[in-house]
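Expect chain and fold; thus:
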Amino acid sequence: MKPTVVIGTTFVDIKGFSRNSYDPQGRNLGDVKFVHGGVGRNVVENFANVGTPVSYVGMLEDSAIGLEVESHLKEIGADLSYAVVAPDHGIGIWLAILDEKGDLAGSISKIPDFSYLEAHLKARGEEIVRQAEAIALEIDLNEQVAEMTVNLAKQYGKDVYAIVGNLSVVLARKDLIRQTKCFICNEIEASKYFGKELLGLTAAEVRDWLPDAAEKEGLRSVIVTMGEQGAVYYEKGAESAGICPPCPTKVVDTTGAGDAFFSGTVMGLVRGATLAEASGYGARLASATIAREENSCPVNKDFFCCQFMETK
């Protein structure tokens, strides 16, 4: 199997864990940790931790923390031959506060300079996409990166799986989303994309609504994650939509759960799983991730069952 190419960002997350009930106006005792993060980097680590070939076309930095991130990704088996090493502003910083339940209470982000990545794709994009099994794209980096990636994937017949960020590109360029193999988002993002409030609906209600909504938007397949209710999926040509139940676990830190669900789902689809089976892989990986303080799943080389062995 060729590597799945992940195009995205690297962040260093500074996480504060509140020991008691979190008071946004007061002093909170707890713990503070520095964790490797970033949507693209998280997805790469998830792939490598379960033994799926992955190549990172992401932002790194020629600094102490940049070299630390690079060393770790190489150690777990990620291919960094196409990564972008910027002299500065290659890595972002995310400051996050987690309440006593492990849920995000507030955050501030410093964004990397994406011009380095844009120039890199202009110079080597064809080479990168041509050798890929599929593309996992952090689509909201900027419009230029998203458009170049989607166009190159179309040129070389590669599937694109888009992971949503701040919706800046997604809402402005729905034409790019229509060209992806599967659109994976949470219920808040889906509400904004489809123009319908989904919060407060049951998974069954979203399942019944999703087929018509996806058809109207021209989407080939879509998955909407709904937290404790699991996820709802729909694929064009299938008889009906379905519900993927959650995998209950003790919550330690919910950050990285969406990246893990995306990773497990895409890895399943690349290996030949159905959308329902792939959603199950995503749910299992998300469950394993929120049970730990890190932003990615634990190492598990036997994660995939034998029926989805590598294809040549």
About this structure: The longest strand covers residues 11-18. The chain has one domain: 4-9+39-59+115-308. The longest helix spans residues 115-130.
